[in-house]
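User: Could you go from structure to sequence for me? I need the amino acid at each position, not a summary. Structure tokens:
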């Protein structure tokens, strides 16, 4: 007979908020959001993104909160408990698979961030110009040994924190570092917005021109909404299994989505004014963050110190998001497969490192493994595309169908109202309207497009 281990929970509502926000806020805000917005035409893309957050992201986040807190299990165990002996548990299995796919490329970019922090501390960016910023980014990603080394360091840090557990690891780190992140990013904004020519960047971010919007851009906005809010792949289910009984999950979902979107906007406001001020192209792609930020602080008093602060905050954001990513397989392996938490963290770290090297060596067409492609995508882009644009929206669709059509309404009302303690009748009606009719329809429409795009 197995021993029933007492499961940890976060210690307060504030801890829940910071941990969940720590999962949402990450490279998605600071690295992915700006370059995708840049590549997809600015304001119109932003508007579609907001709609995806509202009509798809929020209802799915709430659904995951329900599944996690009600069952208090890892992603696979939770679905098995909710719908025993049915294929629904495949949502959890797909979630574990997605979390590996994301980790493979995420750990690579997080490695660049750590490396940039190190370079900033060493003074490598003093007197940087547009040309040298581009050249330095090229050197960092081409390595080949240094990006692999930094990827290894990131993975070791994340696995180390996770072995400390939920309260002493995840909760402690996120509660200390998330508030700091807000302060640092606002300092960056003040600097960027006072650069000559900053207005053009703001205009780019907020000017809506639907002529720019392709089907691929709409899919990218949807994928970004999932990626941003860590949805459709088990992270929010796993984290909510550590929520306290008193959490108001409605307001938690809204607060997390709003704060996360605010951080993305703040990142956009730091990056686009710089892009235009230095005459760079907003369409520069994944290197955008790394080429612009060193320029933001060049030629200003204490510039290098601020640069260090910026990469420090990005490293924090990347690390706390990775904690939640890796927690999915760690909780699964330790609860379902009888491994110790430490063993599960080490095994996941080893897999993440070995396969992650493939991503790191295929970032660019000219990288060592850049010539190996599938549907025209190298490993790095493939891991990103399949997770964000296929697996996560598909996981989200299945979650919407499960919650909308296969779970008893009374059960949902009971759990979301904390067993009658919260008055949420009106909100529950809106939730069901969205999760039954709006969210799945939007997902199917965009998803069919994705299949079309893949064939192109
Ligand atoms: N939300 C994180 C970010 O924006 C990425 C992430 C995706 C984290 C999925 C966990 C799960 O960087």
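Assistant: Here is the amino acid at each position, in order:
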């Amino acid at each position: 007979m197995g021993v029933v281990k007492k499961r940890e929970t976060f210690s307060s509502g504030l801890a829940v908020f910071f941990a969940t926000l720590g999962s949402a806020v990450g490279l998605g805000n600071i690295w992915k959001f700006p370059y995708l917005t840049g590549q997809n035409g600015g304001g119109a893309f932003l508007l579609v993104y907001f709609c995806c957050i509202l009509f798809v992201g929020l209802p799915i986040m709430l659904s995951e909160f329900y599944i996690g807190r009600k069952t208090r299990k890892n992603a696979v165990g939770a679905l098995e408990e909710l719908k025993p002996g049915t294929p629904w548990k495949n949502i959890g299995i797909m979630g574990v698979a997605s979390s590996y796919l994301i980790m493979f490329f995420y750990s690579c970019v997080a490695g660049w961030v750590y490396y940039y922090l190190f370079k900033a501390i060493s003074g490598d960016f003093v007197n940087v110009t547009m040309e040298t910023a581009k050249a330095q980014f090229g050197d960092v990603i081409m390595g080949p040994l240094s990006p692999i080394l930094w990827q290894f360091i990131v993975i070791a840090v994340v696995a180390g924190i996770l072995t400390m557990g939920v309260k002493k690891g995840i909760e402690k780190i996120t509660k200390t570092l998330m508030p700091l992140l807000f302060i640092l990013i606002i300092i960056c904004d003040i600097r960027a917005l006072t650069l000559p020519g900053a207005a053009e960047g703001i205009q780019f971010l907020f000017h809506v021109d639907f002529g720019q919007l392709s089907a691929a851009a709409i899919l990218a906005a949807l994928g970004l909404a999932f990626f941003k809010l860590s949805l459709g792949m088990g992270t929010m289910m796993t984290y909510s299994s550590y929520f306290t009984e008193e959490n108001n999950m409605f307001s938690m979902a809204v607060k997390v989505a709003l704060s996360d979107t605010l951080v993305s906007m703040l990142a956009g406001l730091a990056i686009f004014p710089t892009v235009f001020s230095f005459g760079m192209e907003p369409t520069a792609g994944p290197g955008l963050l790394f080429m612009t930020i060193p320029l933001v602080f060049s030629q200003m008093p204490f510039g290098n110190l601020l640069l260090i602060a910026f990469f420090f905050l990005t490293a924090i954001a990347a690390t706390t998001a990775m904690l939640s990513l890796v927690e999915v397989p760690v909780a699964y392996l330790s609860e379902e497969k009888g491994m110790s938490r430490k063993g599960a963290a080490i095994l996941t770290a080893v897999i993440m490192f070995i396969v992650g090297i493939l991503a790191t060596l295929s970032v660019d067409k000219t990288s060592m493994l850049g010539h190996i492609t599938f549907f025209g995508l190298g490993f790095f882009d493939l891991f990103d595309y399949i997770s964000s644009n296929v697996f996560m929206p598909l996981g989200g669709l299945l979650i919407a169908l499960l919650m909308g059509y296969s779970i008893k309404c009374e059960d949902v009302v009971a759990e979301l109202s904390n067993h009658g303690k919260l008055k949420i009748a009106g909100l529950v009606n809106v939730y069901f309207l969205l999760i039954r009719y709006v969210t799945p329809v939007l997902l199917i429409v965009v998803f069919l497009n994705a299949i079309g795009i893949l064939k192109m």
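One structural detail worth keeping in mind: The pocket of phenylalanine is lined by residues 23-24, 26-29, 102, 227-228, 230, 233, 235, 321, 324-325 (CB under 6 Å).
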